[in-house]
Amino acid sequence: MEIFRQYLKSKTSITDEQFSMLSNELKTRQVSRGEILLIANTRTKLFFFVSKGLLRSYTLDKQGKEHIIQFAVENGFIGDRNSVVFEEPAQFYVDALEDSEVVVINNKFMDLAHVVIPDFGLYNTLRLNDTIRDIQRRVSLLLAATAEERYNSFIKLYPDLGLRLSQLVIASYLGITPESLSRIRRNLVRNPERGMK
């Protein structure tokens, strides 16, 4: 919980007293690797803040193949906004790729934070705009970029994840096969200047 408190203090004008009051609406949860926090087609009112570890959101196609949407590392948020905000069934699964510690954030916390913390609304709007920008970039890359360009973008967005994720998981995020990813990595080792674009 302390990591989340420090995070909020770095982003808003929250005081210790305000956080203490709001913390009744928060829970800390230890999550084991492989544990599912959200199942697609269920409803949720929860977001997750990653204090430690690594989570991902993903969807499954009709053949059961995973398509990773997002990763959340330390100080990151993850959830299914469609379900939380619009009370519709979740579109995504969320699970842990490492043993993790998360802060579970409910709607009541968000509502109270808007009332109690003067600049929380501005912070939340900026965070939402960042999320929309990231989604637009991701969609653009998936639709129009080469596999190599997608990999380079992944490295820039998640510079430390290359060593924490399996080749299969990275390939799923990029929308390519593990064999294609191996080929891209070999090409970048031979021509490192291509990775700087």
From TrEMBL:
InterPro entries the record matches: cNMP-bd_dom, cNMP-bd_dom_sf, RmlC-like_jellyroll, WH-like_DNA-bd_sf
Matches recorded under CDD domains: CAP_ED (cd00038)
Cyclic nucleotide-binding domain segment(s): 13-108
A Pfam family hit: cNMP_binding
Name of the protein described by the UniProt record: Crp/Fnr family transcriptional regulator
